[in-house]
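Loading example: each entry is read as two labelled lines plus one structure line.
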Amino acid sequence: GAVVSQHPSRVICKSGTSVKIECRSLDFQATTMFWYRQFPKKSLMLMATSNEGSKATYEQGVEKDKFLINHASLTLSTLTVTSAHPEDSSFYICSARDLRAEKPQHFGDGTRLSIL
Amino acid sequence: AQTVTQSQPEMSVQEAETVTLSCTYDTSESDYYLFWYKQPPSRQMILVIRQEAYKQQNATENRFSVNFQKAAKSFSLKISDSQLGDAAMYFCAYRSDAGGTSYGKLTFGQGTILTVHP
């Protein structure tokens, strides 16, 4: 079964709305989670690294004030797209690293965000 | 910074045949992992196979195997006895094991769309 739960899977909303996406690790603690953005038939681009109890580390070119990340517990990271516009429409995927030895990185099922 | 390159945007194969997907990477690190992920139309990310850089032996998982050439920084994926369910987008990925802010971060290649013909 899924070890990383991402919710919601699909969001359609009006321009100007803020949208929150949750990423939960279900059976392990994740001090670090990653947020990726993916355009159709393109690769996953890392947006930011979410660190439990501290500020997220954003990749170059990613607007911190547009994409707010909060990692308040060892099992939950949230990405909030603030004042979303049509150009923010995309597929967002989170992943979490299970730090127990030899465990792979687990991905959520993604969130398809459509801004009208 | 590490880079991963997949030079084949699209590949096709006949069912039951074998296909090889190419991947090259660039890094100055000695400790790292390489992965192949499969992304079907559902867009789930499915781990296909992983390779530790310190291991010389090529990883295999049933019909999937890799050809890991560390000196050449090459990491190709071979799919044997291709099945219709193998049709997907395949991503090669690099993960540093060096610690610090890059720890656990995956760098992906551009992806290869694999079509399987019946």
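Chain A has no helices and eleven strands.
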